[in-house]
Design brief:
alpha/beta; five-stranded mixed beta sheet
Length: 211
């Protein structure tokens, strides 16, 4: 259902952000969740690194009920792992000695759905930049699609998306564990725990996945 209050122009959206920041600044002296702000001006000490999807329905700090400075959050469509994401995780693990990385996927993921759609409908065209995201998700979707169609039957797109979301999370976990010597050494020595999880948009529950 469309949001009746959704801004109609970029300028209106910008005005809402400015108003929101003004309210935030006004709340700094009274909101308990912002009381740590002064000590965070020069440093941070996040308890976990979250590699999540850019989806607006998955606000990571809210989902895990954490406050200002508690999480080092990296968000990219499809919670994919590319060099910049690996570098960001390396930075936080080294700089802040953070001991946990969570790759957080979610139900109804648009990036995974786009990849499934591109596989089922090969004529689908995306921009080169969007295609680069789809291509990083494609291996896990392709493998599941091949298994689903091995008996000659058509794959159910909804089921394929659902299973691919978790497969994509597991693939990202593996890429973090084995795509960086620094992270691999930390993981294998037990100094860094890297896990996958799926957020259910309907229920709000996060399910942590087995490796």
């Amino acid at each position: 259902m469309p949001n009746a209050n959704r801004p109609k122009t970029g300028a209106e959206a910008l005005a809402l952000l400015k108003e929101g920041n003004a309210r935030y600044v006004d709340s700094l002296t009274s909101d308990p969740s912002t009381q740590r702000r002064p000590e965070l001006v020069r440093d941070q000490d996040p308890l976990a690194i979250i590699l999540g999807c850019s989806d607006a329905r998955v606000p990571v700090e809210i989902v895990f009920d954490q406050g200002l400075g508690d999480l080092f959050v990296i968000r990219v469509a499809g919670n994919i792992v590319a060099p910049s994401q690996i570098g960001s995780v390396e930075f936080a693990a080294d700089k802040f000695d953070t001991k946990l990385v969570v790759v957080l996927g979610h139900s109804n993921c648009g990036a995974v759905s786009a990849c499934v759609d591109a596989l089922i409908n090969p004529e689908q065209n995306y921009s080169p930049n969007l295609q680069s995201i789809v291509d990083r998700i494609r291996p896990c979707v392709y493998n599941l699609h091949e298994l689903a169609t091995a008996n000659g039957q058509d794959a159910d797109a909804e089921e394929l998306i659902d299973r691919s979301i978790r497969a994509n999370v597991r693939m990202s976990v593996s890429q973090l564990k084995h795509g960086s010597r620094a992270l691999e050494d930390l993981s294998s020595s037990g100094q860094l725990l890297i896990v996958g999880a799926e957020y259910n948009i309907d229920t709000g529950k996060v399910r942590f996945l087995d490796s």
